[in-house]
Amino acid sequence: MTNQTMFKKFNRWLASFFDGINGQPINYEDHDVVVGNQRYKVVRGRRLDINQLLQIERQIYGGEPWDRQSFEIDMGRPNTLYLLLVDQNSQEMIAFIGASFNDYARDVHITNIGVIPKYQMHGLGTFLLHEVENQARQRQLLSMSLEVRRSNVTAQRLYTSLGFIKTQVREHYYHDDGEDAFNMLKKLN
Q1: Which phi and psi angles does 180 have, rounded to 5°?
Q2: Which positions are annotated as active-site residues?
Q3: In the predicted model, is pLDDT for residue 112 greater than 70?
Q4: Which of 4, 16, 39, 73 has the fewest CB atoms inside 10 Å of its own CB, making it the most exposed?
Q5: Cα angle at 23 between 83 and 113, to 5 degrees?
Q6: For a pLDDT cut of 70, what percent of the chain falls above it?
């Protein structure tokens, strides 16, 4: 067994260990919403949606920052919630958010968020962040956290407008190109 294989197995074990102390599974009911005069359905993401999530990533980034295994691991945790926005007219999945709820640390961490380019700047990312925040408040969590690329000024502006502040620089955070990330935090109390 290679060191890389052993490291991946250890990471899976460690994640499952912390899932046991992080809290209970998240309950979420699918429902219809209107954002900016457009009708969408918000549905809970499942592993069978991973192909579409990978397609959205390709549309946004030209590649796949998260591979299939990363999505499978993240979605397999009982304290993780993925929400998908589906356009009511086209039935196309157009946006998603992943969030890991940690009852022990009293934080919800945004693991992934994306909106396909032709739907960006229509309030959909904001809507998804508010949905996760509502879930966090119901669980009486105290904060929301995330990482964002240093170069992604548009996302930083959005997060700042929603009450997130930069708390730390994580040097060489992104594996694909070594770019730095900002940790951002929003207090919910």
Answers
A1: -75, 160
A2: 147, 159
A3: yes
A4: 4
A5: 25
A6: 87
